[in-house]
Amino acid sequence: MQRALLLLFTLSFFLLAHAQEDEISFSEALAIHLPKYNKHADKAYRDKNIARADELFDSLVNYGLKGSVLDNFRVTNLKKKPVYLNEFEKPVYLTTYASWIIPTEGEIPALNKLSEKYGEQIDFIILFWDNFETTKKLAKKYHKNIKILYVDELQNNSPYVVKMMKHSLGLPTSFLLDSGKKILDIRRKVSHPFGIEFEKSFALNYDSLSSAISLLLMENSSRYITAEKTVFP
């Protein structure tokens, strides 16, 4: 019996160590896969072949970036204090943003509603590429369960990986992370024409966000979000 337990412990330790050795950081994964992606994506955009560009982005995420671990980068909160990614212990829904990006009408209300419902289970983070004053003003639009952070690139103090999150994948981009900061998926926000009624915009954004949150809960908590009918605020 003791031999069996010892063998089981040794095997478990070996598998854990092997899994840790296989882990690769997000910045390392980008260094490997980004040059080839940029070469083909630049051509697709020059040719105005948006469908091809989207296909290439999905391929980069699915075969190059998923499973990597997002680096423990440092940014700043609204108290002007440094914040590290690894300080967040729950699964993370992280969206990179900037003030010059115009959200669709239903985008922020949908995110606010879901963060109100799942804030105990998920850390919702918006990371702005803006100065303190602009970020503080924009933060008023978001629910209290959403952590608002910012990077002021004019200060030239943001870590390399933070710059790469912006300049390699563009804004806005959402990172779905398990509690160990492993990337489960990387998504771009839902797109629809401006000018559609609020209810349709809200429903499209709510459904897209719900899909992301479901993935976080299933992978990290072994719990499923029950199907529910969209309720407008």
Explained architecture:
By secondary structure, the protein is of the alpha/beta class. It has a domain at 69-221: Glutaredoxin (3-Layer(aba) Sandwich), CATH 3.40.30. It has seven helices and seven strands; from the N terminus they run H-H-H-E-E-E-H-E-H-E-H-E-E-H. It has helices spanning 2-22, 26-46, 50-65, 107-118, 132-139, 160-167, 198-221; strands at residues 74-77, 82-84, 92-97, 123-129, 146-151, 173-177, 183-188. Strand 6 (173-177) and strand 7 (183-188) form a beta hairpin. Helix 2 (26-46) packs antiparallel against helix 3 and helix 4 runs parallel beside helix 7 (198-221). The protein is globular and about 40 Å long.
| Stretches with pLDDT under 50, minimum 5 residues | 4-21, 223-229
Name given to the CATH homologous superfamily of the domain at 69-221: Glutaredoxin
What order do the helices and strands follow? HHHEEEHEHEHEEH
Task: Give the terminus-to-terminus CA distance.
Answer: 60 Å
CATH class of the domain at 69-221: Alpha Beta
Portion of residues in helices? 40-55%
Give descriptors for this structure.
single chain, 233 residues, alpha/beta, Glutaredoxin, 7 strands
Brief overview:
The chain has seven helices and seven strands. It is of the alpha/beta class and 233 residues long.
Lay out the secondary structure.
Blueprint: H1 2-22, H2 26-46, H3 50-65, E1 74-77, E2 82-84, E3 92-97, H4 107-118, E4 123-129, H5 132-139, E5 146-151, H6 160-167, E6 173-177, E7 183-188, H7 198-221
Parallel strand pairs: 3-4, 4-5
Antiparallel strand pairs: 1-2, 1-5, 3-6, 6-7
